[in-house]
Every structure is written in C-alpha cells, then in structure tokens.
Amino acid sequence: MKVAGVLLAAGSATRMGRNKLLLELDGEPMVRRAARAAIEAGLEPVLVVLGHEGERVAEALRGLDCELVRNPDHAGGINTSLSAGIAAVPPDCAAAVVLLGDMPLVGAAQIAALVARWRETGAPLVASRYGEAQAPPTLYGRALLAELVGGRGEGRGREVVHRHRGDAAFVAQPEAALPDVDVPEDLLRVRAHAGSGVST
C-alpha cells in the first residue's frame, strides 16, 4: 500500500525576513533536505506544495523525484496549502504523511517510523511525539484525508489529530528533531544540531 508525502513549503516566512526554506543546512536548502528525507523514507509520491517564491523553491528541488503542487491561495494560511496537497494525493495511496519544510532535523528514519507503526497497527492516524510535545510529521489514513481539505487559516491538521486521538497510534521521536525554523536564532540552533545523527 502506497503512502504519499505532502510537504508544505508555501509560506512567506515573514518572521525570518527572507525565504527560510532556501536557507542552507549542511550546504543544502532546507526544503530540499525535507523533500529528500521524505523520498528516502519511501513515501510515494512526494508532493511539495509551493506558494511564496514558488519558482525559487522549485529550482531548489531540481533533480529530486518529487511532484510540485502550486497553491495560488497560499497567503490564506497553511490550511490552504494542506488542502492543495491532500487534494493531489493519488487515489491509490492508502495514507499520507504531512510534513513541514521548516523542520529540517526530521529525517528519513523518523518518517519511516510513522509508516512502520501504521502498517503494524492499522491505526487511522499516527502522530509524532517529542517528549511531551506533539508535532509533525503526522500520518493520516485514507479515511481521514477528506477532513484535511477546505478552509483558510491554520490548525486543521491539529484539529483532526485531536478529533481522532482516541484511535491514534504514536511514535516517540527524538526531541532534538523537534525544532522548526522561524527566526534567525532558530537557524543557529538547528545548525548546531545538524550532523549529530538526529536527521538520518
């Protein structure tokens, strides 16, 4: 059973002051690092949702085996990108893993662990736990995908997780993989962790 990847990479990164997805970690743009991890984890297809500076982000992904999904409504919030990505999931995929382009320390091993838990348990939802925190990536079974489509703003994925928490399975992820990148100080922190083995 195929599991798709939906990588959200459409945001404008206003707090960073420039496109954070194009900032490099170990000599590689963050968005490319995230897409490569999804591919190496065996997700198929890997759908990358583009919006802000879409052509520049697409260029950073050149040569990778991923499919680009354009979201012209990306300014309406992350829910619009989630909707666009989920709508592009092929019908022969039994589930989809939703990932964020600004969590560069999440690697193939963490993504593959979600898929493995899903195959073991058959749970409709498999969520990541980083100590006491819950954050992406998250695997949604086919039956839940329709709940991720529609609306603007943010928080749709969290709402679906909360709604189906009683039926969910969880994967304990390394807490060091949790940081996302929103401001320049975040980038310094993840660069300090990069190469430590967290993201492989």
Mean pLDDT: 88
Q: What is the structural class? A: alpha/beta
- Largest β-sheet summary: 7 strands, mixed
Number of helices: 6
Spatially, the strands of the biggest sheet line up as: 5-4-1-6-8-7-9
Q: Total strand count, please?
A: 9
How would you explain this protein's 3D organization?
This protein is α/β, with parallel strands linked by helices and 200 residues long. Helix content is 30%, strand content 24%. The chain contains six helices and nine strands, in the order E-E-E-H-E-H-E-H-E-H-E-E-H-E-H. The strands form two sheets. Strands 5-4-1-6-8-7-9 form a seven-stranded mixed beta sheet, sandwiched between helices. Strands 2-3 form a two-stranded antiparallel ribbon. Helix 1 packs parallel to helix 4. The radius of gyration is 15 Å and the shape is globular.
Question: What's the structural blueprint in terms of helices and strands?
Answer:
Blueprint: E1 2-9, E2 24-25, E3 28-29, H1 30-40, E4 46-50, H2 54-60, E5 67-70, H3 78-87, E6 93-100, H4 108-121, E7 125-130, E8 133-141, H5 156-163, E9 169-172, H6 184-193
Parallel strand pairs: 1-4, 1-6, 4-5, 7-9
Antiparallel strand pairs: 2-3, 6-8, 7-8
Helix pairs in contact: 1-4
Kindly summarize this structure in a few lines.
The chain has 200 residues and is α/β, with parallel strands linked by helices.
Pick out its properties:
200 residues; alpha/beta; two-stranded antiparallel sheet; 30% helix; disordered C terminus
